[in-house]
């Protein structure tokens, strides 16, 4: 009984440290196929190497990610680190990255893109891919740890999403700008496009119509670029206009932004996510084009190089994780199991532990490939709040042989917690009455926690007999 009381006390007083989804999650996506040799230990190994080689403690509760020049940090790296640590359930590291991000924001509330070490701006203003990844990582953090602790992940996510909307989406066109201070229809970066995130942002902020238009525009620009330049497969260019044509403003970038190199290479990964999570037909079409280019045109993953003209001619010379892993993600929508299996093994066997870009992306890709880069529940249901204190919460029958019915306000979160403190079931309610089947659980005492978006909760005890 003493232990039982301690568990209840923990649940009622230490909610900010509760964890929804420990690693590994090992999810099976609702769309696409999974590699047969997938193993979450591969993702864990990649993460451990990444953390050892690229994370530095700034000794003030902040952490940074070392860039190609180890004395520098870029916003992209911080955002990648936020995604990785959120999915790996590494709260201390996640909080440190987010505090570092906030230490270095400009007047628009987005991080200056390059920082010298732990402090000192080396490159001013935002890079939109970092904002997108960071905002979505905050949504994952809110799912993982809730938002009643020292950092309110939910309100921070909403604030960052608002900044993206206000400063990094071109007004009236829905074209993604590559930064808060430049770009739009005259120059954009397709590899930043994250339509799966946009759909989640829309639900999370109750702004679905706007963000769905941003997602639709992403596919318009992609298809314009492929058609305009007679591209093979899914070989988009690094930079382009919204019309798909090459941009005169891209002359400062490699090959004037006209080739599929280290920017564009991330596109198959980002678009595959939209198919795996949402089953988006445009994402399926693009992913299959990308996968078939490797399987048919190149003869398999082992022949991938790090650069192509849009007509499919190779211009690169290296076989690395940035390119191999993104194409492997596309293969999850490519309908060829053997090709996906071979692509997974090819990526696993690449060993570039000291390459910031290659190994960081390898780790992100491996999360998706193993079912550990998932759409969290709080990004699938509206965040409308309710007043728990004025609500009546009941559950019956109690004791129960198997099923319980919970009467609670809609849009609440129900967590079933064992006497040891483990969350064995969690879901959002869509109506006032929710039936939960506990027939597969052992007999004993369980706790039912009903919580709202204002960080208030009620915990009730139920007995399975």
TrEMBL record:
Domain Secretion system C-terminal sorting per the UniProt entry, residue ranges: 395-463
Matches recorded under InterPro entries: 6-hairpin_glycosidase_sf, 6hp_glycosidase-like_sf, Glyco_hydro_8, Secre_tail
Keyword annotations: Carbohydrate metabolism, Cellulose degradation, Glycosidase, Hydrolase, Polysaccharide degradation, Signal
GO molecular function, one term: hydrolase activity
Pfam families: Glyco_hydro_8, Por_Secre_tail
Presence of keyword tRNA-binding: no
EC number of this enzyme: 3.2.1.4
SUPFAM superfamilies assigned: Six-hairpin glycosidases
Reaction catalysis annotation: Endohydrolysis of (1->4)-beta-D-glucosidic linkages in cellulose, lichenin and cereal beta-D-glucans
Gene3D superfamilies named in the record: 1.50.10.10
Similarity-based family: Belongs to the glycosyl hydrolase 8 (cellulase D) family.
Record protein name field: cellulase
Natural source organism: Flavobacterium chungangensis
């Amino acid at each position: 009984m003493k232990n039982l009381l301690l568990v209840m006390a923990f649940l009622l007083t230490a909610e900010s440290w509760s964890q929804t989804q420990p690693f590994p999650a090992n999810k099976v996506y609702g769309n696409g196929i999974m590699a047969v040799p997938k193993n979450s230990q591969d993702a864990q190994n990649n993460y451990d190497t990444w953390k050892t080689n690229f994370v530095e403690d700034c000794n003030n509760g902040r952490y940074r990610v070392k860039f190609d020049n180890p004395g520098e940090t870029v916003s992209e790296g911080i955002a990648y680190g936020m995604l990785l640590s959120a999915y790996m359930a590494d709260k201390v590291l996640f909080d440190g990255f987010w505090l570092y991000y906030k230490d270095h924001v400009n007047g628009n509330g987005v991080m200056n893109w390059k920082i010298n070490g732990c402090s000192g701006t080396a490159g001013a203003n935002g890079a939109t891919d970092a904002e997108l990844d960071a905002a979505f990582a905050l949504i994952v953090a809110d799912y993982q740890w809730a938002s009643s602790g020292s950092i309110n992940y939910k309100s921070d996510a909403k604030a960052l999403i608002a900044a993206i909307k206000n400063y990094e989406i071109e007004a009236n066109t829905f074209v993604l700008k590559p930064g808060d201070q430049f770009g739009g229809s005259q120059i954009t970066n397709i590899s930043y496009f994250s339509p799966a995130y946009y759909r989640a942002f829309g639900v999370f902020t109750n702004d679905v119509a706007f963000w769905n238009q941003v997602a639709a525009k992403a596919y318009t620009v992609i298809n314009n670029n492929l058609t305009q330049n007679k591209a093979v497969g899914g070989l988009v260019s690094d930079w382009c206009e919204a019309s798909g044509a090459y941009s005169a403003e891209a002359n400062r970038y490699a090959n004037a932004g006209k080739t599929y190199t280290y920017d564009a290479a991330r596109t198959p990964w980002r678009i595959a996510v939209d198919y795996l999570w949402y089953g988006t037909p445009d994402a399926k079409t693009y992913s299959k084009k990308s996968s078939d280019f490797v399987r048919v045109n190149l003869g398999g993953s082992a022949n991938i190089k790090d650069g192509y003209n849009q007509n499919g001619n190779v211009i690169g010379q290296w076989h690395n994780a940035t390119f191999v892993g993104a194409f492997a993600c596309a293969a999850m929508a490519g309908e060829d199991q053997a090709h996906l299996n071979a692509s997974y093994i090819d990526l696993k066997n690449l060993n570039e532990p000291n390459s910031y870009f290659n190994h960081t992306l390898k780790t992100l890709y491996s999360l998706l490939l193993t079912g550990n880069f998932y759409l969290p529940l709080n990004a699938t249901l509206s965040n409308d709040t309710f007043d728990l204190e004025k609500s009546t919460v009941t559950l019956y029958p109690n004791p129960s042989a198997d099923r319980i019915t919970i009467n609670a306000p809609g849009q609440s979160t129900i967590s079933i917690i064992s006497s040891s403190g483990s969350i064995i079931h969690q879901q959002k309610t869509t109506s006032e009455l929710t039936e939960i089947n506990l027939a597969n659980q052992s007999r004993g005492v369980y706790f039912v926690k009903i919580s709202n978006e204002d960080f208030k909760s009620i915990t009730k005890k139920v007995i399975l007999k």
